[in-house]
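1st attempt posting a full record on here, be nice pls
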Amino acid sequence: MHELVIFDCDGVLVDSEVISNEVLARMLTREGLPTTLREARRACQGLLLTDIRDQAEAKLGRPLPPEWLAEYEHERAEEFRRSLKAVPGAAEAVQRVKAAGLKVCVASQGALEKTRLTLGLTGLRELFPAGALFSAYDVPRPKPDPALFRHAAATMGVQPSACTVIEDTPSGVTAAVAAGMRAIGYAADSDEHALRNAGAEIIRSLDKLPEFLGLPRT
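the predicted structure (as tokens):
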């Protein structure tokens, strides 16, 4: 039943969500919009950076400085270089999927440059073939629209019904379900109920992924 496993990147393969949102909270607070890590994650996780900027400007009632997004990306990249790690079990899960003969790819809300950076810093980049990284910036509409997952499946030469998506946000799960794909919600650091309500089956450890996919034991 499975031919392609599509992995989200942030929060599924790389443990980047806390880092990204700590930087975001710090920079929004600096601009006069006091924001905690928890508030940043609740309001912004899963959004495009341009949407985060627009949301902040609406709350502030004024534009952010023109260089704000570039400065955020720079500060975030520096924090990634200092402390980013792979999600526990991520490399092993991808390797098990590939060893079973399934295709793998990454479909992220983030830009390709960010995905390449984070996968490279965590030693995961080599697990994915050339042309198997996809970004919401490459399609007309981001998650929760299904366009990104449909684009990834089409490029990889697989029908949506033969795809499984691993996601950690309700918007990503919603996109997978709308694309006609099986959705598995990785709930180690996410709202399990929200993932389930969006249509996901739940795993709390990537060690369980091969079992969920019905892969042979090694």
